[in-house]
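Structure, all two chains, one model.
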Amino acid sequence: MKRQVALLMTIIVGTVLILSACGKAQNEGNGKPENGGEGSTGTTSVNAFGWQLPAKTTKIHFYQAEKGNPDKIEKKQAAFHDYLLKEFNVDIKRTTLDVEPKEKLNLMLVSGDYPEVIAGLDDSAISQWKAQNKIMDLAPLVDKYGPNIKKALGDRYASYLDENGKLWGIPRGWGYLPIPDFTAHIRWDWYQEMGAPEIKTPEDYYNVLKQMVAKHPTNANGEKTYALSWNADVKVNNAIGFWGLQDGYKEDADHNLTHWLNTEEGKQAALYYNRFFLDGLMDPDAFVNKFEDWRTKFSNERIAGHIGPWWQSWNAGHEVWRTTDPNYKEDKRYVQVAFKAQGAEKAYLSPKDTHGWNYTVLTDKAKSPEDIIKFLDFTMTPMGTRLMGWGIPNITDSYWNFEEGGKWSFNDTAKQALLAGDLDYEKTEAANGSNIFWLAYPQGLLSDDNKSTAWYDQNFNADDKWKKLMLDNVADTIYESTERRVIFANDNPLTIKNQQIEELIKTGFAKIVMSKSEADAIKNFEDLRSKAQKIGLSDIEKYRTEEYEKESCKAEING
Amino acid sequence: MNYLRRFSRERQIWLISLPIILWVLVFSYFPMYGLIIAFQNYVPGQTMFGNWVGFDNFIRFFQEPDFWMIMRNTIVISMLNLLIGFPAPIILALLLNEVRNRAFKKTIQSLSYIPYFISWVVVASIAFTLLGNDGIINDLLQRFGFIHNPIQFLGEGKYFWAILTSSNVWKDVGFSSIIYMSAIAGIDREQYEAGKVDGLGRFGLAWHITLPGIRSTIVLLFILALGGILNAGFEQQLLLGSPTTRDYYEVIDTYVYRFGVQFGNYSYGTAVGLMKSLIGLTLVIVANKLSKRYMQTAIF
């Protein structure tokens, strides 16, 4: 009897255990959330953004591989973190450190101490982490949980897969945003004072700046003025784009790429900047200035023109003068202008790699990769991108308003402040957290209206007369460079050669520009070319041409 | 047996030294195992015992197009530091020793130490204020009519070594003189009395009594300085240098930082660093032997 009771009990207990295990497995298989857990609501519901709240809090604590002030990042993310936790049940936290990201990533690999998610890995880092099996193939997860990722990326999706069809990272900041990054600038009120003579060529630009400096030889403090100044971070490849060179290379009819050092256009460009120096129009500290030194000179009205990123003259020019000059008038500012050298097809100043800046990866430590992918998938929807890009809606410092049902509008107060140049970014960004968690979404125009973008301040270019003027002037200098992207992975023997040549050019270009005679400048140009050749410039040209050919073929195949 | 007896006799001293010995073992000797990556193509995260490349990383350094420029800069900057920076604190100590007014002496001493505690970031900023195109020195030279256009002290390579050496001397001279001051304080005062009786003046006393009295300290520090002959500096180059002066400021350490650490070529950086250390060690051994033979003073 005892034996029969024991047998019966065993069968009952076994059946219960099997059924409960099956039930659990079925739950997982159905994707139904578990009850309980940290921050669990116990039930699932859909929020105003169409996001199905997970029963268990989705945790995304990630390291972003870029250099930044951790305190500032912390300040900027706190409010948005709380909002996303409350409204989305997603606990998202970003870590950014004030150290070289490459060093930090290597240290993570060596120590094995790395988070579940890392944002900002470039192709070279991806290959390193992939080779050591530290990151996950995301393709199966995206297939299952990422319909919006696939939809948003469209045909482009295939270009992120490796030769085995594996996806090692979700791109960040991909897409085409036709705003200029790099332009020539001119002091607008001085230019108008001259009667705004036409600027069509580098010669015209030189002459206009020369006349400006002649008319304003010193600033109010008696300090000498210059036509141009730079700081040590000058981007040579962009500065020579006026001569028809694309990102430092000339392309022939057969799509062979030749480095600017091996072209006549490159030589002319370098000699052009030397002329500024020879004529006393180039700040002699152009390559000694740190960014802040340059900014101070600029704000002190010692520089008539600029060749660099568009925001620099904004930041160091009228945004300062608005607050310091009691008699400030709106045309006391710099305006972006474009020109091209004679014989150049066009000026290529702002290359746009639509592939994205870099990637977000999930490491082998990710405990719930499917939940993370679900959230990344949400951020890829136009409304998800708006939320992540513009931050918390419907509060005083919001950039936008959002209503149930998907209706949205820009916050007029913030918009007017932006257009008037009064927007306090530090305050509003700390309050709404815009773009602090840029894990996967695009920077290009959003698919539902084809005009809004994750960069809040770029949404009103048509309403801002100065930005509109800039775009009208330089729109033709923006070009897509996706097919020219080239990866110098760690195991590529050309990587070191490429690094050496880039370092050499930084020094060599400065020497050419600061040469004391044209003959010296030519000699320094030839010396630089010869040194670069010795290191292996022709190997780099060949490699870039081959990669360009491959990327072009891929693009053709993908549509 | 003899060693054990001696150890037993000196056990209290060994006990006192134990923490320092442990510190040196843990922080200076234990990490040396990492030097093996100089002979590999090491990839962070992968094993340190695979992918051997022998002496390839060393050979690569010698074949670098900038090799001679880097070696020239390293040696010239080090030699300038040795020739000017080494005797400067000795001279300062001798001069301070001659100052009779105690308050004045203490004030000068304290003032001379201060620059040692100023970071290179601040020193670089002072240098820019003084030597920039809009700096005080150019301004003065222009005001007094010596020049019409500013001199690019920081933008032209030909001034770089002089600026670097002057900054090094200014920063270190006071602090480095402390050890000589203490060595001078240890000289028997009776020797000075005897010198005076023999008719020596102040210069004679310094030459015949003070300098020989601190000779062993000078030799010891000179041998150690030789060991660091390839340590030509690092922060000062990065902070005071610019693309236009790279041909004059790039030294082994800045090169290793740039190509080894920043670009993630750790094996290469380690190989160059190891080579530098071996040269330094060789110089210390040779200098020590020569000093032992000719001056009867040695550090080991």
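Chain A touches chain B at residues 100, 102-103, 106-107, 109-110, 112, 128, 131-132, 134, 223, 232, 280, 283-285, 287-288, 293, 490, 496, 499-500, 503, 506-507, 509-511, 514, 531, 534-535 (CB under 8 Å).
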